[in-house]
């Protein structure tokens, strides 16, 4: 059985992009993969953070994932398992500055004011490689935005193997869902939907009520043209494309099929149908999340149990990596 590793930053409540790009696939993969799912709280320190908010959001994210169908024993938070930090440091020393300089996510997140960002943001992809390889995971379900980081993780694994004269680390395969691989902001179809976008209206979260969802979809930016009947008609219409792609992904239909149904109409009826579809799938997740959040002790116990399992898998792997680099035990 192939091992899957995937993580999500507890930098906010998971949103529709996280759901379609990651969480929904995680839930499906559990049936026939050995899955390890991680709340990557160490990655959350790469951008400015507030301790109490991080604590609250880690619990909130745990509740959302469990409500979305993640099995409790497969979930834990990264900082509770030391294998991540230990292998992350080794990879900091294997990875090359030239490789990190090419990472577009660093450029996007750091913007023009690079000198002021944390060193953690810069070496984030090295820790992500360690997250995966500490478990010898070979399949990593991620959104399209993470493709470059997976390629870097493979470069690190190969260089480690080459330098240490071993074939210890396996090759990782990014598992990118074809539909809605990148969900865009509801306010700007050229920006990805993100937890850190200051506008609440830019994203649908997994704790939104049915009313929140309906309102956000009603207010979602569109243009004044009717929907086209063919995919080519979405060219240059980023917001329309995004909403149609979301509908297609949620309904498990092709974009063409959605346009055949709604093409030629204005956005009104389409938005109503999209809101209904989203409410039907996401409102029960939000309700279950709220229920789980009422019992913080239970959530903490679930994470502790998940961390124990994660330790039992990663500890022998990271100890072997430490032996290979020449550390004494
Ligand atoms: N908009 C998106 N569309 C599709 N997939 C997405 N993912 C994130 N945003 C989208 C996928 O969700 C998983 C977890 O992502 P993450 O939270 O660890 O990091 P991120 O990509 O940095 O997500 P955000 O929302 O943009 O967080 P902030 O604002 O904190 O940086 C990943 O598999 C990712 O591909």
Automatic annotation (TrEMBL):
Instruction: State where L-tryptophan binds.
Output: 131
Reaction equation(s) it catalyzes: tRNA(Trp) + L-tryptophan + ATP = L-tryptophyl-tRNA(Trp) + AMP + diphosphate + H(+)
CDD domains hit by this protein:
TrpRS_core
Q: Which GO terms describe its biological process?
A: tryptophanyl-tRNA aminoacylation
Q: Which residues bind ATP?
A: 9-11, 17-18, 143-145, 183, 192-196
Entry coiled-coil feature ranges? none
Q: Which UniProt keywords apply?
A: Aminoacyl-tRNA synthetase, ATP-binding, Cytoplasm, Ligase, Nucleotide-binding, Protein biosynthesis
Tell me, what's a Pfam family for it? tRNA-synt_1b
Query: What's the stated role of this polypeptide?
Result: Catalyzes the attachment of tryptophan to tRNA(Trp).
Quaternary structure and partners: Homodimer.
- EC number annotated for this UniProt entry: 6.1.1.2
One GO CC annotation: cytosol
Sequence motif: 'KMSKS' region, positions? 192-196
Family, according to the entry, reads as follows: Belongs to the class-I aminoacyl-tRNA synthetase family.
Q: Mention one GO molecular function.
A: ATP binding
Where in or outside the cell is it found?
Cytoplasm
**Keyword Cell division in annotation:** no
Which intervals of this chain are the motif 'HIGH' region? 10-18
UniProt-recorded name of the protein: Tryptophan--tRNA ligase
């Amino acid at each position: 059985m192939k091992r899957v590793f995937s993580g999500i930053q507890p930098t906010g409540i998971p949103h529709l992009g996280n759901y379609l790009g990651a969480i929904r696939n995680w839930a499906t993969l559990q049936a026939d993969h050995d899955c390890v799912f991680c709340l990557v709280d160490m990655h959350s320190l790469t951008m400015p953070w507030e301790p109490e908010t991080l604590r609250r959001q880690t619990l909130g994210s745990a509740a959302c994932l469990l409500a979305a169908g993640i099995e409790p024993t497969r979930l834990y938070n990264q900082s509770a398992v030391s294998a991540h930090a230990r292998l992350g440091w080794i990879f900091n020393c294997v990875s090359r500055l030239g490789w990190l300089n090419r990472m577009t996510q660093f450029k996007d997140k750091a913007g023009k004011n690079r000198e002021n960002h944390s060193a953690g943001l810069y070496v984030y992809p090295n820790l992500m490689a360690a997250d995966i390889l500490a478990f010898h995971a070979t399949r990593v379900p991620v959104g399209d935005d993470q493709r470059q980081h997976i390629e870097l993780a493979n470069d690190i694994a190969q260089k480690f193997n080459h330098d240490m004269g071993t074939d210890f680390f396996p090759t990782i395969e990014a598992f990118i869902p074809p539909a809605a691989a990148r969900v865009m902001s509801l306010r700007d179809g050229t920006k990805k939907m993100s937890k850190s976008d200051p506008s609440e209206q830019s994203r649908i979260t997994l704790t939104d009520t049915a009313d929140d969802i309906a309102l956000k979809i009603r207010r979602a930016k569109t243009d004044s043209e009717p929907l086209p009947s063919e995919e080519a008609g979405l060219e240059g219409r980023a917001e329309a494309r995004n909403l149609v792609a979301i509908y297609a992904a949620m309904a498990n239909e092709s974009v063409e099929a959605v346009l055949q149904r709604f093409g030629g109409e204005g956005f009104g009826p389409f938005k109503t149908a999209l809101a209904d579809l989203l409410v039907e799938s996401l409102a029960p997740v939000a309700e279950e999340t709220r229920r789980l959040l009422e019992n913080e002790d239970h959530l903490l116990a679930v994470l502790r149990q998940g961390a124990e399992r994660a330790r039992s898998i990663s500890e022998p792997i990271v100890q072997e990596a430490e032996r290979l680099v020449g550390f004494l035990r």
